């Protein structure tokens, strides 16, 4: 039995006088005539980094003061990076001017980025998912990495990527079109775009400063082999995304200092990779929103960023097996007790702890926690599903303002969904709208097209009469028939 909740209502204490009109009351607490709670627009600005945020994204939600504090963008000033400059006029007009060229450019922005990029994407991109029946999805399979080749092509090969900047610069545009383009009705538009004033030169520094990292950028003049770039190299992102970082701005590097003088004696005094990306993907007062306006390329950038963070975490686990006390893990310890010498055949060589989000032990730990809760409190009373609706007014208003599609800003869908979910959880647990809740837990999942949904269970409601009344009035739906969970 599933109850599909598609809209949430949050707690708003009515402090108005009793004679207030219905319209004024609704607008005061954000409720529309239909009972929908509107979270408004991202009209609040972070006091530290000037990022535009929704009011519902503040920390300390019980406080409703006029100066909300946000941590999602810069963690209260911890991350303080140089802001991105406005892109060259040509790129700006391709992203903003409403005309045929812009539509063409936006549709093929990944291909155009590839024409100018110095490196190639090593992961397997699944093109089959975009079969025309839904919004565009960038799906990457396997391990992701960026590859760079020699600066000159092998004698029998055509130039590609980095080599296009070096090899035969007189015929550079023709080479680019030949390498990536196909002839068709849009060939002329493609030529027009390529003939514009994009940067055509770059200096790649062969950096040996990170001796601990074996994989680094190594450029050779002519080689048949591709070199793998470390995601810790500052040029990792600008080499792959010249249309997002047209001035070659640095990506993440180790040792970025926090944005204030530490007085709390914190252990880590540098910015993490996750914090770096969280800062970069915010719309900010005075900063160029070029990353956020790049549509399909933004999707690719997000996936790339996620894989960078994940592989960085996995490398930490790989290098810190001793600190994680991996030798005490059950299977290995049991095998050793049995006197088996060759432990390489027992389990996996690298042990991923339960602190790794999404890992096997992480999932098992949460499953066992949930089962323990059920054992203590009894069977769950409610199973509630909330799904993200890309037509929520907050999302459509934001996208209309920036002339974007839903698939261009998956981050906005997720942020609005999280606000709605928080509202729902608060409404059900703290406001006790269904009676007293002893325990509640939820899990957020992503459907194959990228929209999130959450499943929630609530246990041991005190007022069973209330449950019966609600169940008799609410429509039951087998809502998950249509959803993919
Ligand atoms: Zn901030």
TrEMBL record:
UniProt superkingdom: Eukaryota
Helitron helicase-like domain mapped to chain residues: 276-457
InterPro entries attached to this UniProt entry: Helitron_helicase-like
Family annotation (PANTHER family): DNA BINDING PROTEIN-LIKE, HOOK MOTIF PROTEIN, PUTATIVE-RELATED
Official protein name in the record: BnaAnng25720D protein
Record lineage: Eukaryota, Viridiplantae, Streptophyta, Embryophyta, Tracheophyta
């Amino acid at each position: 039995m599933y109850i599909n909740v598609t809209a949430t209502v949050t707690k708003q204490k009515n402090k108005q006088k009793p004679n207030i009109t219905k319209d004024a009351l609704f607008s005061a607490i954000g409720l529309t005539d239909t009972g929908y709670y509107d979270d408004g627009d991202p009209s609040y600005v972070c006091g530290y980094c000037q990022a535009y945020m929704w009011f519902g994204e503040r920390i300390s939600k019980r406080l409703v003061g006029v100066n909300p504090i946000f941590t999602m963008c810069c963690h209260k000033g911890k991350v303080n990076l140089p802001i991105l400059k406005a892109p060259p006029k040509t790129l700006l007009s391709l992203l903003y001017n409403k005309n045929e060229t812009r539509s063409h450019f936006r549709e093929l922005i990944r291909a155009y980025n590839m024409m100018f990029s110095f490196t190639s994407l090593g992961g397997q991109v699944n093109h089959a998912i975009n079969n025309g029946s839904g919004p565009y999805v960038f799906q990457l399979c396997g391990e992701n990495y960026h590859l760079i080749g020699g600066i000159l092509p092998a004698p029998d090969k055509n130039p590609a990527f980095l080599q296009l900047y070096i090899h035969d610069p007189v015929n550079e545009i023709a080479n680019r079109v030949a390498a990536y383009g196909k002839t068709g009705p849009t060939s002329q538009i493609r030529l027009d775009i390529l003939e514009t004033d994009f940067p055509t030169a770059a200096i790649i520094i062969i950096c040996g400063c990170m001796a601990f990292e074996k994989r680094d950028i190594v450029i050779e003049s002519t080689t048949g082999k591709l070199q793998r770039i470390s995601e810790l190299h500052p040029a990792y992102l600008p080499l792959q995304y010249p249309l997002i970082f047209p001035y070659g701005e640095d990506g993440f590097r180790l040792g970025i200092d926090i944005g204030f003088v530490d007085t709390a004696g914190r252990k880590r005094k540098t910015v993490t990779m996750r914090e770096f990306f969280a800062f970069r993907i915010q719309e900010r007062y005075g900063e160029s929103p070029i990353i956020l306006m790049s549509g399909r390329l933004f999707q690719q950038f997000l996936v790339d960023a996620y894989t960078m963070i994940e592989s960085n975490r996995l490398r930490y686990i790989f290098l810190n097996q001793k600190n994680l006390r991996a030798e005490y893990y059950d299977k290995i310890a049991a095998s050793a007790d049995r006197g088996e010498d060759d432990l390489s055949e027992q389990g996996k060589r690298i042990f991923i702890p339960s602190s790794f989000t999404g890992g096997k032990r992480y999932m098992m730990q949460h499953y066992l926690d949930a089962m323990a809760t059920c054992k203590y409190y009894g069977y769950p009373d409610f199973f509630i599903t909330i799904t993200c609706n890309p037509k929520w007014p907050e999302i459509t208003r934001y996208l209309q303002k920036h002339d974007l599609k839903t698939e261009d800003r998956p981050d906005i869908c997720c942020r609005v969904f999280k606000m709605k979910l928080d509202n729902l959880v608060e409404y059900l647990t703290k406001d006790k709208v269904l009676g007293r809740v002893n325990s509640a837990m939820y899990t957020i999942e992503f459907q194959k097209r990228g929209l999130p949904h959450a499943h929630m269970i609530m246990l041991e409601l005190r007022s069973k009469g209330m449950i019966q009344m609600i169940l008799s009035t609410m429509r039951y739906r087998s809502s998950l028939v249509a959803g993919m969970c």
